[in-house]
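quick one: beta-D-glucopyranose bound model?
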Amino acid sequence: MSFELKIDALLGRMTLVEKVGQMCQLAIFIPDLEDRIRQGHAGSIICSNSPTPGNTPQDPVLALQLNEYQRLAVEESRLGIPILFGRDVLHGYKTVGPIPLGQAATWNPEIIESVARVTACEASADGINLNFAPVIDIARDPRWGRIAEGFGEDPHLCSVLAQAAVRGYQGEDLTDPATVLACAKHFAGYGAVEGGRDYNGTEIAATTLRNIYLPPFWAAVRAGVGAIMSGFHDIGGIPMSAHRELVAGILKEEWGFEGFVISDWAAIDEMRQHGVAETRADCALISALAGLDMDMASEVYIDELAALVETNQLAEAVIDDAVRRVLRAKFRLGLFDQPYTDVKRASLHLSPDHRQVVRKAAEQSLVLLKNDGILPLAKSDLTVGVFGPLANARKTLCGAWNLDGHEDSVLSILDAVRDKVGANVEILATDLVDDALKIAPRCDVVIAVVGEGIARSGENNCITTLDLPPGHQAFLEALHAIQVPTAAIVLAGRPLALEWADRNLSAILMVWHPGTEGAKAITDTLFGDHNPSGKSPVTFPRNVGQVPLHYNHRPTGRPLPRNDRRHSRYADAPDSPLYPFGYGLSYSTFEYRNLHITVTAPRAVSISAEITNTSSTAGDEIAQLYIRDVVASISRPVKELKGFSRLSLKPGETQTVVFQLTQDDLSFYNQSGHLSFEPGLFKVWVGPDSNTGLAGQFELK
Ligand code: BGC
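yep, here:
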């Protein structure tokens, strides 16, 4: 029997309250949880608890607890419908990969997929079957702490990586016990919160919504994502929990999304604070009609929906549709046949294979922003100081939105350097800044580990300066005054304003929050056993005043030469970024040559270029393709990423990169909200970042 027939049969047996129970996600910490499960009120449970300490990360503490809740649902509730257990497992469970922004710097969908697969394998072993990931909010404002959680500023890169993440979490077949249902979030436009302040409102033009913020969600839907979470924010006064046009309209009707939509934490109830609902009953009615199928944690649905149906304010068909979507997810996961997790699988946590996956991800996530030649360091006859406020950090390396990484399983950067170098390199270290400054003159080079801790990154950790924290900046300046060559390792969940460091230090390696194996990846890179290849998925501004600053801005009416005072500009600072989107150095050097553009069909074009490794070091280069639609019915971005390719090049080797663009790649959403192809002239660039490259053009009639 097909899922849909099974769902019909089940729906026919359910009372109204049992139906509404499927639309309810209860918090794991509520006191009467067990009774509520028996009553059929727990369609889902959000496991928002901190990990219960076991003796080791392999102890199946959560697995045993969730199996017991599942047993109550399956054996002691009237219909025996299994529970969806949700948790935020954004970039790793016990084995933690780089934060998503760091993963995006790999520009490598295979890496994103493999980290998601490891995450799914470990989280599912503990009984989690619904993961509130991936975060696919386009973020153009680094003041917003949650920029760390997503894949950066570009809709194309984010869409490709969103699909990879969904594949990784959900696998080929969700009945495989090592998979989880993915929940892409936060629908839609959350990254545009005003002032970069979390939970704030947004103003997003319809064309910008369609062309910038929605594409990653559309990509996730095409990849079969099982659930979507709506955001806390509003667009122009309509909170997402009330946004009928977006949720019921675009997502479900236009795109044909068959999964379920869940609210963010208590966001349905928060509509009273938004000022669009007076009572909890209003909240329930508005959200149900907007198309939100599941209520995370506010218990508004379970308290209010049944009465709304009984008093004919809400059609039962709305409830049935929501319940159908939730049950469909449970059938897709095979929970009716296998509701329990095999607790023995928790032994896989932190396995060498899993560590290997996140190590490779960490390696490729590192972005070398500056290098005057000091890196890589020699492995002999050297005295290296490893100093700085984060040199000994461990938990910080796991990032801000990570519940499950164990500090004990993470090496600090100082320890990793010590482990790596033998007796041929002398390592000097101290926790104290004053001591560091005394020892530093004895060093040939100083590795200064600075940046953001996790209290300054992630959800609701928004900031009004992008400078390094004051003590960190002062420390770098003091080292500079001693004139010891310094390489800064910058840990952060966002691009920081590093103009001073760029001007004054020998090297800057941006390492984000790199995860369990991050310190080893960094150390391998410092000493030349790994050649950095990451490219930034966000623009690095010079200072916070330039924000929002993104490469794919629209042209102004005054794009005149820069020395012209009528040019759109700041009077007190350059308008260019410090490092453009897509930027990142390597120990190799690459040369781009021979751009070829061939129109292969009336609306298709093939673009190729040759890339040569002109150095004596093997390395990877991420070649990027940008276009500009020169004249269209609405102003189109000055550059738009349309393709990228990672090439591994031996010393002296040349490879040809080929990109094929189709009509869809050259189309955009017009003023009527329709995808439209408009013929005419297109400019093209193929190069190492969004600011440089070989330039050409083609015309389509
Ligand atoms: C966040 C979501 C998260 C939820 C549950 C909220 O505060 O916005 O991203 O999934 O909490 O932990």
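Residues 48, 88, 132, 185, 264-265, 459 surround beta-D-glucopyranose (CB under 6 Å).
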